Please model this.
Amino acid sequence: MNIGIDIGGSHIGIGLVKQEKIIDKKEIEIISKNKENIEEFIVKNIVDIISKILEKNKLQIKDIQKIGIATPGTVIDEKIITNVVNLNIKKFDLFNELKKYYKDTQIIIKNDGKCAAIAEKLYGNMNTYEDAIFICLGTGVGGAVFLGGKMLEPQICSGFEIGHMTINKDGEKCNCGKNGCFDIYGSMKRFKAKIKKELNLNQTAISSKIMPAIQKSKNQKVQQIIDEYTKDVAIGISNLINIFEPQIIVIGGSFAHYKDILLEKVKQKIQNENMLLNKREKLNITTAKFLNDAGIIGAGNL
Model:
């Protein structure tokens, strides 16, 4: 068995993983004050949660073959994480910090979008396709591209930071310093914050509370927020289709929990608003089989 860790912009999820199965899982939220000492927070909570999972399942660290970690940003030499803009991490040697606690355990670190894509390619909705794109819409936007069954990985950096593709040149400034990034306009965290504000929902409300509120609402501003969001996501996805011409696009992150109100609108906008150079009768776009757990499963299978 392996440990899969998914470090997100707003939470850390850690699971005991065996192939596509998560045997046990714990999560902790990352709030604003945690970001003041984020490196310390990440290491402390990884160590604490792994200890609790092992104890609960009557295991020891020697029973774990490897620890796989999915992280935002760029990973250098599978050790150092850089440019994690949503957590204010510029450069952090996560590998060696964790080796202080797990010196005899293999540790592998990879970009979170790529980890989630690995889960969907091995066991999920991209499994039978050679040319596929995975897009994670969560706090920010990440992803990975497969051509001929192989994940594209550049020699310089880890690449494929699709969240920092510009989709609005006069748009808001991203945490990376650029204007109008897909990372802003495709962010589900930002989308949910707008909806919660408009519907006077508690800012801590989770998807299972937000979705019914949206479905019951006749508030025109809510529909406007949905239309704007799905248009922005459609622009980002259509750019990727025009470049890579995939057989399938799979969308993960918290977007998957809102499939019923968002997915068809995104497809319709791509089809009906002249976004594709090579028109398609049918767009094969779906949500991730593993929903928000894809990062943990992918990390556990590195």
